[in-house]
Amino acid sequence: MTDITRDVVIIGAGAAGTTAANQLRKAGLTVAVLEARDRVGGRLWTDVIEGAMLEIGGQWVSPDQDALKETIEELGLETFSRYREGDSVYVGPDGQLHRFTGEMFPVSAETEAVIAEITERLDAMVAEIDPDKPWEHPNAQEWDSVTWDAWLRAQTDDDEAVRNLAFATGSAMLTKPTHTFSLLQSLLMAASAGSYSNLVDADFILDKRVVGGLQQVPQALAARLGDDVFLNSPVRFLEWGDEGVVAHADGDLTVRARYAILAHAPVLYDRISFVPSLPRRQHQLHQHLSMGFVIKVHAVYDRPFWREQGLSGTAFSPYELSHEAYDNTNHGDERGTLVGFVSDQNADDLFTLSAEERKERILESLSHYYGPEAKNPVVYYESDWGTEEWTRGAYAASFDMGGLHRYGADLRAAVGPIHFACSDMAGAGYQHVDGAIRMGRLAAANILAADGS
């Protein structure tokens, strides 16, 4: 049995947990980071599959993600731009492929006008939203009582416009059907990126990658902590009170501390038995949060053949099984990699099929963008975070209808000595590594303030 004492015990060794631990250590406090998995990184995971380096989890860096960019620079990591030279492609409701350049995809002039008008309206609404406190907007309750799909369909009867406007926050980000979350939740998603226009701009949101993979961020931060990181140590019981906390983890590991930070997805809080139980408010709050679901598809080819056709690799369609796909070729790699995404109900439906049928369906969808060569990758892999015991979905948790304005203000509130930090509760950088780092910094700052450090 191992029984240790620290100032702060941190549960979860992802970007939030390792950031918080380093901030606390710099301020002179002692820490222990307990991680359930056999690796550091949480929802960041770079692995070699059949000889190909794949970023199984999060990977992109956008220009507004200052916390992440600062961390990358401080760690001495390099970034490179996503390949985007050439034409993008769009598949319309008639199943026809359309090549285009620029931000606006090829739809009819009428549909383009509708999309532009509603986008302008959304940008104006988002500008009024504080991403850290969306529930404080005067219309928060009203906006949290109508679904994203219903609101859009109340603006126009142009179905193609609705589908294209909807999938930016639905399939692409929250990875839930658009009738299952509110307008307010959608506005928060956009506000976290600065505007709705930013959110739908692939060149903005998917700007750069880290050479060697984004998992290096938490790995490098964890390396600085040395023996204070404990892998394969899921916390089963957490005693808490005025004097502090006692965390009981697998492997007969006990950590006594003055504070705790839960730095993992909120859907996993119920894996820990709290003694005494958490307050009623938290019990209710946590039941109104759930993960979305997306299959991230990696297809590696002997060369980036689409570039020979003058294609950038950027492709999307609300009518396709893979609703978006991009050139995801690694830095300096002669081979070409495409990454595609299948979300929400489509992802559920695919997992009723055999692995071979699923692969065939997905590659068929990619071939509608890139041609028949897309059906023959040399390496094929599906990131299925829904089966991950310590994640249970992707990309992050969001509220059900009405939950955000009702419980949002309590999401980051400490409970006695217990603090919370992860990308799921961020304002700016919500659902992204940038948000995880921001929340790690915030939790550390709050503990330091409470501690008088």
Shape assignment: globular
Strands ordered across the widest β-sheet:
9-8-19-20-21-18-22
CATH architecture descriptor of the largest domain: 3-Layer(bba) Sandwich
How much of the sequence lies in strands comes to: 15-25%
- CATH first level of the largest domain: Alpha Beta
- Give the total of domains: 3
Radius of gyration: 22 Å
Largest sheet: 7 strands, mixed
Which descriptors would you attach to this protein?
oxidoreductase activity; Polyamine Oxidase, Chain A, domain 2; 17 helices; seven-stranded mixed beta sheet; alpha/beta; FAD/NAD(P)-binding domain; Flavin_MAO; five-stranded mixed beta sheet; 453 residues; oxidoreductase; Guanine Nucleotide Dissociation Inhibitor, domain 1; FAD/NAD-bd_sf
Could you explain how this protein is built, in words?
The protein has 453 residues and is α/β, with parallel strands linked by helices. The chain has 3 domains: 2-42 and 215-278 and 415-451, FAD/NAD(P)-binding domain (3-Layer(bba) Sandwich); 46-66 and 73-84 and 205-212 and 293-387, Alpha-Beta Complex (Polyamine Oxidase, Chain A, domain 2); 104-200, Guanine Nucleotide Dissociation Inhibitor, domain 1 (Orthogonal Bundle), CATH 1.10.405. It has a 7-stranded mixed beta sheet.
